[in-house]
Write a structure and sequence with these properties.
Layout lengths: L4 E6 L2 H12 L4 E3 L5 H7 L3 H12 L4 E6 L7 H12 L3 E6 L22 E2 L2 E2 H4 L2 E2 L8 H25 L1
Parallel strand pairs: 1-2, 1-3, 3-4, 4-7
Antiparallel strand pairs: 5-6
Helix pairs in contact: 3-4
């Protein structure tokens, strides 16, 4: 019987939430609850509340999956989520989502690797954390989503193994 992993999804909320919803609905993964717009308004701008919310979301998770859109890399809170996940001993991985459509049917540009340049406790995350991106566009947004669905549990197990080695 396969293990159901509890994961935290990290992503750039405004431009990517529609694409991310397609990934969050994959049944083999128990994920965090998304912050709703109204909830976000109560913590937005208050760094202590944002940090506390992130820490609460990371609690009890075994892996952080960074869903990489066009502008994900380099964002302050995404970097914080990545670094905190690594410090907690969690697996960390990325999945490019540029070949998933948004609510208007549009794709986004392929984003940069968010792990490049991040160093935690002397470990260069860009050299050990994998950012998955099928090199061949599979035909449609649904095909791409299905490819991610078929491989995400393996990506997560790989990330947990990598983290145990570092």
């Amino acid at each position: 019987m396969a293990i159901t992993r509890r994961v935290f999804y990290s992503f750039h909320y405004k431009p990517d939430s529609w694409r991310v919803s397609k990934i969050r609905n994959i049944g083999a993964i128990a994920e965090n609850k998304p912050v709703h717009d109204n909830d976000w308004e109560t913590i937005k701008g208050n760094e202590a509340k944002i940090e506390r919310w992130i820490q609460d979301q990371l609690y009890g998770r075994s892996c952080t999956v960074v869903l990489i859109g066009g502008n994900t890399a380099g964002r302050k809170w995404i970097n914080y989520e990545i670094k905190e996940s690594w410090k907690k001993g969690m697996g960390v991985l990325g999945v490019h989502i540029h070949n998933l459509t948004d609510h208007t049917g549009n794709f986004c540009s392929r984003g940069a690797n968010p792990f490049s340049g991040l160093v935690v406790n002397g470990v260069s995350l860009g050299s050990v954390v994998v950012a998955h991106d099928p090199w061949v566009f599979l035909g449609s947004s649904a095909d791409y989503r299905n490819h991610i669905a078929a491989n995400l549990d393996g990506y997560i197990e790989q990330a947990i193994t990598i983290r145990r080695q570092h």
